[in-house]
Amino acid sequence: MTRRALLTLLLSSVALFAERKPVTLDDLFAERPSAGMGQAIWAPDGKSFVYNQAGKVRLYDVTARKSRDLFAMQALSSAAVKVPPAERFGWENRGVKEEVIQWAPGGHELLIASGGDIFLWRIASGGFQQLTATPIAERDAKLSPDGKQIVFRRQHDIYVLDLGTKKEVRLTSNGSDTLRNGELDWVYPEELALGTAFWGAPDSTKKE
């Protein structure tokens, strides 16, 4: 390749890249909802996400680039049965992670943990169903992969709730201060970066 041809090629490349506007961080966040939004929780189809902003859960439609209010978290926490204060100090590792809002696999409902109880919010109808109402906090609730059951921890035992029949089944019954089913002690979050201690099988037949 001659020196003239090489120069022409370089100039053409520079012109080509000059025509393309570089992608910046400002571009990536230009369509993001207003400042102060919480973490985006994406729907299973990736077309929308929900986020908590100033106590209100909002739904953002990516295609339409618009958001709308769904509900206020206060409405759910007010409906929850009040949990008595703990009788003694209970330490918990900061690495423990429990999801407050989760999408159902079908993308039509949200599983909400608020005030110690568990709720199901239906996107289309705009209403919630209270799934638990006890003076003992239900913790670390998870939807089964098929969306038909909810697994959670109450005190030191694990329970499963069938959404169709509303039947609740206790999976363990030997929980105590020294035997904590489905709970993490300090070593797992610290050394293994685990935020939870139980999971559902991919085919929804088992809880581990």
Molecular structure report:
With 208 residues, this protein is of the alpha+beta class. It has a single domain (3-192), classed as Dipeptidylpeptidase IV, N-terminal domain (Methanol Dehydrogenase, Chain A). Helices cover 16% and strands 29% of the residues. It is built from 4 helices and 12 strands; from the N terminus they run ααββββαββββββββα. It has helices spanning 3-19, 25-28, 73-79, 187-192; strands spanning 41-42, 48-53, 56-61, 66-72, 101-103, 109-114, 117-122, 127-130, 138-143, 149-154, 157-162, 168-170. It has a 4-stranded antiparallel sheet with strand order 1-2-3-4. Strand 7 and strand 8 form a beta hairpin. The protein is globular and about 50 Å long. The termini are far apart. Residues 5-19 and 27-31 have low confidence and may be disordered.
